[in-house]
Amino acid sequence: MRREARADRAAAAEGRLQKRKMPARKDGSTKGDLKEANRKRAREGGPVRYSARVEYDGTDFAGFQIQSRSRTVQGELERALGRLSGGSRIRVEGAGRTDAGVHARGQVIAFTYRGRLGRTELHRALTALLPRDIGLGTLRRVEAGFRPRYRAMYREYRYMVWNGPPSPLRERHALAVREPLDVEAMGEAATVFVGRHDFSAFGGRDKQPVRTVHEVRVRRQGRWVTIVVIGDAFLRQMVRRMVAALLRVGREQATVDEVRRELGSRAPAFAGETAPANGLVLWRVPMGPSHRVSEEEQDKRER
Q1: Which CATH architecture has domain 155-284?
Q2: Among the options 8, 33, 60, 99, which is catalytic?
Q3: 2-20+30-151+288-302, which class in CATH?
Q4: How far is CA 198 from the centre of its chain?
Q5: What is the pLDDT of residues 188-223, one digit of tens each?
């Protein structure tokens, strides 16, 4: 009920903006007058393309991409936008299609808005409508052709391992491994994945299984072991299968040479063993700097 109440308040935000009385300025105008002028310019300028960073706890989602019978991140974002556009669908595009249970700290989305709310009001309304397991960052105005999936410079994933005693809070967003891990051996095995390879053995079926991995790092800080994977793009479950192989090495269940042979075999590596989704986070997806409208230009257009 609370969520519905927030939704109703946010959906009515546009109407309230017009009714709100603002103190007059020296020239006789009010802030309300200026906001109305901004909305008028937005209407005259046509649809506005926005981009934003999105953070979410993927525990209760069936992934990012919209599905007809499952709860997804894209579905929740589009539902919120639909409430602000009279039920019309506003398509949300993401930089990465995370699987069920995978989290994100730096997912990047984009959508085209045709309504009358300004950037700040739109962000406030969306924040009120979105569930607690999705956080929306600052909206940034971008050019009409901006598509985060194709404008991403690279994608950085981090896999979190709690290598310590039982800890329910930590293990909600990390894989629990009780036995000691040989992090040095894992780091050596990680170098096998760096470069341009056919990753058929470590990913779902794809017509183009060749991917470029720029960096794979394994580091320990106390009881935490973090596996950082950076690449242009990834096959389905590719990062989690790589992590599973590295954990085998860390447990002394596989050698570096065996990981190398598995990569070259194209058959599912280590019988398709895949690390659980809860430890994986889409950490960062940098966009090319020339693809965004600058903050100064955003302010100019909205003043």
Answers
A1: 2-Layer Sandwich (3.30)
A2: 99
A3: alpha beta
A4: 25
A5: 999 999 999 999 999 988 899 999 999 999 999 999
